[in-house]
Amino acid sequence: MFEKLLSIKKEAAFKLIQRLFCIGIFPLFFSSICLGKYFAILFPSQYQVPATQHGFYTFRTGPNVLRGIFIGTCLFIFSIVIWKIICQIFLIILEAFESNTHQNNLD
Question: Which single residue of 8, 44, 73, 105 has CA 20 to 30 Å from 60?
């Protein structure tokens, strides 16, 4: 059983890059959540709260949750696009290596 886990099989470049892309999404997701929370706290908003006297209101500051969600979502989408471009570059490089080694094996 451990031999299967530790052995390296020959796989196509597309499968490897597809797995790399899927595995790479998880760190992007968690980093976008952290940055979304950071921006929500960095730019607080004021909420209107009723005062103790009737008819009067006071303001309380708190994290701007909508801004944090928006920035986190935009950052996640942008980082996925950048990660996809990087994975496509890796795929082109791996396919070039595969074709080059295949030609060298035929000679």
Answer: 73
